[in-house]
Structures are given as structure tokens and as C-alpha cells.
Amino acid sequence: MLVYDDEAEAEAIFKAVSPDNAETPNGLIVETQKIDRKVVTTIKYYGDNIATLLSTIDDLLKCVLTAEKTISILRGDFSRI
């Protein structure tokens, strides 16, 4: 669960990672939702290749980091980069 300063920021992060909800390998379920200022992602994996799960988590975190950096740049806050 990630908590942001305001709902607009949470919404932006949610939208940035929501495409991950659409396409996943067999046995992998990724669901992201926004609740107030929080972005919550649930990952369920029913496979036997742990690399698939780790890769999914890594991809998700990279998307979140990229979205957070973009928001910081747009706000003129370069301390989070």
C-alpha cells in the first residue's frame, strides 16, 4: 500500500499502474485500486516460476517510481529525483 499527499497524486499513480491490471501471464493476477489517498496493489501468483512473480513486482515498482518522479518534476520538486 502506498499513501500519497493528496487524492490527485494517488489517482495519477493509480492510472499509471492500472494497465498492469489488464494483461498478465497465466496464473498471475494483479489488481490495483485507489482508496482515498492510497494506492493498493494485490498480486496473486499460482505458478511455480518465482521469477515471473519477482519480475511482475519489479515492473510494478518501476512504473510507480517513474510516475512519482514525473509528478515531482511537474510540481517543480526535484528533491525526489
Distinctive features:
81 residues, TATA-Binding Protein, 3 strands, 46% helix
Task: Describe what this molecule looks like in 3D.
With 81 residues, the protein is an alpha+beta fold. It has a single domain (2-80), classed as TATA-Binding Protein, CATH 3.30.310.50. It has helices spanning 7-17, 50-75, and strands spanning 2-3, 28-35, 38-45. A three-stranded antiparallel beta sheet has the order 1-3-2, covered by helices on one side. Helix 1 (7-17) packs across helix 2. The longest helix has 26 residues, at 50-75. It is elongated.
- Spatial sequence of strands, sheet with the most strands: 1-3-2
Q: What's the CATH H-level homologous superfamily?
A: Alpha-D-phosphohexomutase, C-terminal domain
> Judging by the overall fold, what is the CATH architecture?
2-Layer Sandwich
Low-confidence stretches: none
Overall geometry comes to elongated
For this structure, the CATH topology is TATA-Binding Protein
Any idea what the radius of gyration is? 14 Å
Please, what is the average pLDDT? 89
SS-derived structural category: alpha+beta
Number of domains: 1
The count of strands amounts to 3
Tell me the fraction of residues in β-strands, as a range.
Answer: 15-25%
Describe the largest sheet.
Answer: 3 strands, antiparallel
Give the C-level CATH assignment.
Alpha Beta
Output the helix-strand order: EHEEH
Count of alpha and pi helical runs = 2
In percent, how helical is the residue content? Answer: 40-55%
Distance between the termini: 21 Å
